[in-house]
């Protein structure tokens, strides 16, 4: 069965990646892939389309060689112009991490996930610039973290989508183990002044400089929330990392692109920790860190209701009699209804119309406003229409 094609206006989630590994991990998280939408976007960005838990998702990667704030900004501007209906932006990829999360008082290891979140003391999610993701995304992150901490999260099932078996099933023919977790012996934290001497595995580096032992081999990735520092260059010095973290309000992750897209998209920045932003920065953990960040983003979308789900929930909250009666005859739009002086029984509408109104304002789903004609039709046996009152009656 060929992949379906949607109208361009049906896409509501934008997923940005900076490098190729992040883009591969993102595509592996899709439930279904879509063919190009209609009308097709006319900008120069390279897009992929698909679906995650009923969310229609557009994935875009920054052009090769154009990473950093300037390249990210150009990509984001074209992205938002070509897809004006996108409401949620996720910037998912890898970053360098602080060894310790001072906000949640726990260690950060390679392969963990850091999500840019404002702190309890009011510090912003992204520093170097002052900006925040939209509140809806911050709430969704809280929900994902709570479920994970309670052992009620299928995060590891999402991560298995990038296993060699699943990649082979998707038609990938080479490098099937690229997203496997590296051995914990390669998760080595050296002191901030330590110098790197040999290879990607630090086999020639001084053992006396090791500041923390490797974690257990069966350790699962942890989620961390706190400020992410977005700058102009890669941090490859433990001393510089510590200095910048202290200067920028305890930032626990460092990356280069988010500052270029925050003003345009107010995106949620999700980073898998691929190194400790020190002289021993290597590439061994890049793919796995990209995978854990992508798995977190997928779980986030699973915990965020789509517009269709919100509409279904709203309809299911209506009393059966109201749903049945409204199906008997199409109500007239309020502007076309005759001035009968009648209004619907308030007992037949959802209990909290204020909540329904608030939901409509935040999701784009309009609450139904109906006005029946003067002589409503006779309902089928066993059903009844809402009671009607004169406007000046007391009820």
UniProtKB/TrEMBL annotation:
Occurrences of domain Nucleoside phosphorylase (ranges): 215-287
SUPFAM superfamilies, A to Z: Purine and uridine phosphorylases
Amino acid composition bias (Polar residues), ranges on this chain: 352-365
Gene3D superfamilies named among the record's database cross-references: Nucleoside phosphorylase domain
Region (Disordered): 195-241, 322-395
Biological process per Gene Ontology, one example term: nucleoside metabolic process
Molecular-function GO terms, alphabetical: catalytic activity
Coiled-coil boundaries: none
Pfam family, one: PNP_UDP_1
The protein, known as: Nucleoside phosphorylase domain-containing protein
Organism: Phialocephala subalpina
């Amino acid at each position: 069965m060929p992949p379906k094609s949607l109208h361009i206006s049906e896409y509501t989630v934008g997923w940005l990646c900076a490098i190729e590994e992040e883009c591969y991990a993102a595509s592996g998280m899709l439930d279904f892939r879509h063919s190009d939408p209609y009308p097709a976007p006319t900008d120069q960005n390279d897009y992929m389309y698909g679906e995650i838990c009923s969310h229609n998702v557009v994935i875009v990667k920054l052009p090769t060689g154009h990473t950093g704030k300037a390249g990210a900004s150009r990509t984001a501007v074209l992205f938002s112009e070509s897809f004006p209906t996108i409401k949620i932006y996720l910037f998912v990829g890898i970053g360098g991490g602080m060894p310790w999360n001072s906000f949640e008082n726990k260690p950060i290891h390679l392969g963990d996930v850091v999500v840019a979140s404002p702190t309890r003391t009011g510090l912003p999610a992204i520093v170097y610039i002052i900006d925040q993701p939209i509140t809806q995304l911050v709430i969704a992150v809280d929900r994902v973290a709570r479920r994970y901490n309670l052992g009620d999260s299928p995060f590891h099932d999402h991560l298995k989508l990038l296993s060699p078996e699943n990649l082979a099933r998707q038609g990938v023919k080479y490098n099937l183990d690229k997203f496997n977790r590296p051995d914990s012996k390669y998760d080595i934290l050296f002191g901030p002044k330590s110098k790197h001497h040999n290879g990607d595995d630090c086999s020639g580096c001084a053992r006396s400089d090791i500041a923390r032992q490797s974690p257990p081999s069966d350790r699962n990735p942890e989620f961390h929330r706190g400020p992410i520092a977005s700058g102009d260059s890669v941090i490859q010095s433990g001393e510089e990392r510590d200095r910048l973290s202290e200067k920028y309000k305890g930032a626990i992750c460092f990356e280069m692109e988010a500052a270029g897209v925050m003003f345009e998209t107010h995106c949620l920045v999700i980073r898998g920790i691929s190194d400790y932003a020190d002289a021993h920065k290597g590439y061994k953990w890049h793919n796995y860190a990209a995978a854990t960040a992508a798995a977190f983003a997928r779980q986030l979308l699973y915990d965020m209701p789509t517009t269709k789900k919100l509409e279904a929930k709203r309809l299911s909250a209506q009393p059966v009699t109201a749903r049945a009666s409204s199906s008997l005859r199409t109500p007239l739009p309020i502007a076309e209804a005759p001035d009968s002086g009648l209004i619907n029984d308030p007992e037949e509408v959802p209990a909290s119309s204020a909540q329904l109104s608030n939901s409509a304002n935040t999701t784009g789903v309009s609450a139904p406003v109906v006005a029946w004609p003067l002589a409503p039709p006779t309902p089928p046996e066993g059903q009844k229409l809402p009671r009607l009152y004169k406007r000046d009656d007391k009820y």
